[in-house]
Amino acid sequence: MPRITHVKRAQVRYPTVKVLDNDGNPVKVQVMRKDGVTPKLTRPKHGRPGRPIYMTRTVADRTADPLPPYQCDASPCKYQGTEGGRAILPGMAYKHITPRSGPYGGRQRNRHEECPNWQPWEYSGSLSARIGQVQHEAADLLDPSSWTEQSDAESARDEVAALVQELLDEKQGNLDNMPDGLRDASELNDQVDALEQWHSDVEGADLPDFPDTEEEDCGDCDGEGTVDCGTCDASGEDGAGDPCEDCDGEGTVDCANCEGTGTVEPEEPDQDAVAGWAQEAADAIQSAVDEVPL
Hints:
Layout lengths: L4 E3 L8 E3 L9 E3 L23 E3 L1 E3 L33 E4 L11 E4 L14 H15 L8 H27 L3 H4 L4 H16 L12 E2 L8 E3 L23 E3 L8 E2 L6 H20 L4
Antiparallel strand pairs: 1-6, 2-5, 3-4, 6-7, 8-11, 9-10
Helix pairs in contact: 1-2, 2-4
């Protein structure tokens, strides 16, 4: 990852101009290595030694109009929607990176100090960065706390597989666009094969069976199967002293809720069992996401 430079307070920016000597020529200074003593040289070429590297000295032209402030590239930006918007105004703390995009460096990217740091896929299109993006987005989809049925886990698995498929399509498109003479020898072939295997592994991640409901003691009769007769108040006799017809003089009748069995089957499985199943299902998908065959 490029080094993040933190700046406590942004300054007003001005265009730079070359520093000139008394004869009107640009002032150049020799570029030294980190030790401050050894000159930095160009690479030796065709048997010739490297040559010293010089840099033209510049200075801010404070007589010119100020440059626009840096813009925060975070999405979303903490200050988006405020009066200053994405602008990093003078006095604000900010940070910046300069991802290398070629032999001469790259473009500086800036964010407010309060905004998140850059993720690798935000400044690099490398395969490892894109895989990291897929895994990061998959983690957001694999939250089992809201899964209450089998289809919830299956839908999450399908969404994660779709992320892998998107990356696979991207690399397959790059391969298809290559000239025939280069395509066979390209490392993209191995990458596409590996991504196809990864997609197959995620799409086929083996999910545990959703827990079945289990019989439990009836709450109305405490598992006994009978309750007090309401006609005779459990006495077993009617008002005339004869055996109660509803309970045949027993004083108890079959529980209406469980029909005398003492047990009932709930409409939904135990919540602890569902939570355990959901976590196990999420772990199975996550395992396939983590094991990239590259």
